[in-house]
Request: fold
Amino acid sequence: MRFHVPSYLLGVASAAAVSTFGKRVRPVVVEAVALGQVLVRTGRALIERQRENVEDLWAEIGERIQERMQRPATTTNGRANASASHTA
Reply:
C-alpha cells in the first residue's frame, strides 16, 4: 500500500482540529446542558403545580357532592319537600 501524504496531512489536521475544538466547545456544551436541566426542572415544577390544582378541584367537587347528599331534599322555592319530611 502506498503512503499518501495529503491523506496523512488531512488526518493529522482533523485530529488537531477535534482536539482544539473539544477544548473550546466544552464550556458551551456544559452551559447548554445546565440550561436544559433548569428548563426541565422548571417544567416539572409547573406540571406539579397544575396537578395539585386539579387535585384540589377534585377534592372540592367531592366535598360539594357530600354536602348535597347530606342535605334534605328541597323544592325549587327552597322549602323542604313535604314527601321527604313526612316519611312514616
Q: What stands out?
A: Residues 5-70 form one domain. The chain is about 80% helix and 0% strand.
